[in-house]
Amino acid sequence: MLVLAFDTATPAVTAALHDGERVLAESTTIDARRHGELLVPTVERVLREAGATLREVSAIVAGSGPGPYTGLRVGLMTAQGLATTLGVPAYGVCTLDAVAYGSGRAEPFLVATDARRKEVFWARYTDMRTRRDGPFVDRPADVPVEGLPVVGAGADLYPDILGKSDAPPYPYAGALAALAAERLAEGTPLDPPRPIYLRRPDAVVPGAPKRVTA
Known about the structure:
It comes from Nonomuraea purpurea. The chain is globular and about 45 Å long. Helix 1 packs across helix 2 (69-86) and helix 3 crosses helix 6 (173-186). A 5-stranded mixed β-sheet has the order 3-2-1-4-5, sandwiched between helices. It contains 6 helices and 9 strands, in the order E-E-E-H-E-H-E-H-E-E-E-E-H-H-H. It is α/β, with parallel strands linked by helices.
């Protein structure tokens, strides 16, 4: 097994290669505006550092969000394109699940990431592997924290409401790859690489031009 995983649903453009037992290489750049520019070089970097080639990859995994429309689709379209070219399966894993897995927590907690517009994407977890409910999008004050710890960049943005996070803020690809490899080894079905959208894109189709009269 050689799993190539990457995520572009947050400001972290992150990729990793996993051999079924450990992360062979991982690279992350924090830049919310250059997902399309940075993803392919990041993938090339982890392959080079691991001493592997794309042809050796047996599965592609992309973070499926939730996240901003433009950044999210970069990773998912890249996953679909690579899978088609290589003739290997492509899967999608909820980005919040990757944050949860990276936290290493064994007790109930919440994950919250930045949804912009003064909102957060969030989900509730029983432990690092088990999502209890979600994902949702809400204003921080409407998230039912109920005394649970909150991990992720959403907590860092709104510490007075959600509490300060003590876990990595982003869904680093090493955690994403390890989670996917674990599920594949167990025979747990993974979702196809389809985006998790919790609201409509900002862009809209322009209306018909106004009629000009003399």
